[in-house]
Amino acid sequence: MQARTRFPQAIDLLIVSLSVVFGGIVGFMTTPLPAPPQEREITIRARQYAYEPEVLRVNKGDTLRLKFISEDVVHGFFLEGYDLNVKIFPLEPEFEVSRPSKPGSGERVQEVAVTVDREGKFRYRCSHTCGYMHPFMQGEMIVAPNRLFSTSIGMGLGVLFGGLIVAARKRKPV
Amino acid sequence: MTTDRNLHGVSSSGPTAGPTPTEDSAGGRRVDLLRLFPPLKWFVSRRWFQFAVVFPTLLLFLLFLLAGVFGSPVGNRNIIVVFVWILWWFLLISVMVPFASRVWCTVCPFPFFGEWLQRRSLVAVRAIDPKQRTGEESESGVLIGRNRYFGLNRRWPKALSSIWLQNIGFLALCTFSALLLTRPIVSVMILGFLILLATVLHLIYRHRAFCSYVCPVSGFLSLYAMTSMMEIRSADTDVCAQCGDKGCLAGNDAGWGCAWGIYPSKLDRNNYCGLCMECVKSCPHDNMALNLRPFGSDTQLKGYDEAWKAFIMLALALAYSVIFLGPWGFLKDWANVTESKEVGGFLLYTVILWAGALVVIPGIFALAVWIGRRLAGPHEASAKQVFLGFAYPLVPLGLLVWVAFSLPLLLVNGSYILMVLSDPFGWGWNLFGTANVAWTPVVPQWVPYLQVPLLLVGLAYALKAGWDQATRLFGRQSQALKAFAPVAVVLTVTVLYFFKLYTG
Lengths: 174, 504
Prior knowledge:
heterodimer; A: alpha+beta; Immunoglobulin-like; 11 strands; elongated; B: mainly alpha; 2 domains; three-stranded antiparallel beta sheet; 58% helix; globular
């Protein structure tokens, strides 16, 4: 009995898996393409417990010339995936830049350039304890083309359509 | 025999007890871990088992409370916040619940003092031989089944015999989560209050009324334990049927009667079994099994209280993902009311959270169910049966959503665990040389790549579970498909929205 019921389940699983892969491919292929790379000058203002701008929308290949200022206490700016950590001082145009991969590499500057070479969503987080809600102080850098997002949407729809195909197949309900 | 056996519809003869589990109806094969690992059986069969596993947790709990009161007021520098809300939470939702059901209840310190006072014993059992009853026993405690208890031992009010209190309590608690997660003293107040409440309720009501009906943690554990890959069940229900002792229920000199009011022979869901292992000890026929089973084996919600728990958990996962994992500062200010002083914003946030959890999300779901029933045409299943059946997919989906939400909390803030391990009070100690470890997020850029598969698996499980419910309720395939389609769309859109939050 087990052997007879397992085979259709394997087919079902295969159908759903193929549908998910297909949906993912469609999502990946239809990701909106970004505008040509450009240089952007962005000032990020930090306060308890948010950044302004909260969301940075940029394109892969862009060069970001980042400046920082804190409106209240000392904050940090740790950019996921970019080996960049910044210590921002209250109301000072100078800030301290370090590379997490190279401990002790800090230097004080008034601007830091970042070439956006990875696509997707990256959080920037406060890396210097700044108050009660410090662990939740973060912003988002969304780099186009955001293929993970469109691929995941395609895969999610793939689960639904794969499931519908399985459900619609002619066989008695289990 | 005086017992209150009707907790949560699990009764020895009640209509809601459900079918006796068999290999087919219980959904897949089982492997009895007690027979597979004899040392495990030896361990859980000892009278001192529960004391041995609870006492260390209790000591840790007391350390956390002390740290919360006397330690650093900065959450990420205090062990109570870091260990409870980062480490414990992640282990609970991502490891304990999916793989070991309510094993947290086995080691939970909340009922320790209350149960001790109720039983006046930490290890031994107080039992009498029913043939020797003289009527004098009541002078020194109350006889329930064959066990003797102390305190008032009142029955829990029938009107409150559901998880509605837990639903509301949990939602209320979570409304203040921004304070709870970041202020050690708030954690102390809440955890301290819960242990005090548990103790008082044990003195007033019999058995584990606190755990069954009040504990806010117990509520969601009961829901998500349905998915767990572990269960306690009677190994052979025929043995139970012929058993004259019923020590599992009434207690005997080997073990206390089930503190959760469950007769194992009729136990067909994990929801309300706290895995205390007393039934393993008290069964005179060695008939209890600790089974390994497929994920998502319990598939029936039995009341609106359970369905609403699923809605509340989904709403909270959504709210937390927006507030704590999102970039919007004004929302953090609203939730963080004691510091931001934005009382108006906090009230608005509270109204949105409560309305979303109790009305909007259930309303959208009910609308989808209603449309599905209309599309399906005439059918025999009642509106309640269909609603509860289609609410079940929110259980596996909700669990996976919570795992996806909790993952970045651990990976990003996990290095705080090393810090507070060496300096639990934030006083400048360095016990293990890790107090000055730099805050180091672990692969934060890969978190979305882990969250997406988790959500996809959750969606797949939810759709499969929903389809199984549809075929069970509607019989005809075409009817089942029409009935489930709107709910399937709602489930999918929900997951797509989480994709948007986490990756978009």
